[in-house]
Amino acid sequence: MTTFTPHFVPADTGWVEVIVGCMFSGKTEELIRRLRRAQIAKLDVKIFKPEIDQRYSKSSIVSHSEQALASILVKSSSEILELAGNASVIGIDEGQFFDNELINVCNILADKGVRVIVAGLDQDYRGIPFEPMHQLLAIAEYITKTLAICVVCGNPAGRTQRTIKSGERVLVGAVDSYEARCRKHHYIPESE
Questions:
Q1: In the chain, what are the domains?
Q2: Quick check: 113 and 13 in contact, CB under 8 A?
């Protein structure tokens, strides 16, 4: 009897997994699911999120569906290296809020044998790829693209629609500021 395994799990090496998608697509839920499984396996897990994201909690990553897992707030991606210790699994939420040094940090950790899982938006509200996420997609061994549901038509949504006026590229918010939209119903707001 042959057993099919959808994902080969490397042995004795590290790797990078990236979970991307628009807002409300379940990125943080998927990150939490993977990290909880690692904790159940009694692996040493450390979880980080950027200081800018304190929407729901200062001490946990929290999904829009209110799933939560304790995490450490950091100001920059270099702090992740300093705080990683001997963890065998590193979780990083809201990767788009980190500086481009996150790419180097993920590579260093993976080269040390660590499983690194990063979740974040792949595009901003205008549909422009977010750095460092698009660079992380290039170095990742595993990529998961999540989709939401378009609030206009119910089709699969891969875009984030900003619903309030702001010219800032980074505006931390949730249902008060954003909606998931499909390609047909997403539009780029006029310059503020």
A1: 15-147 (3.40.50.300)
A2: yes
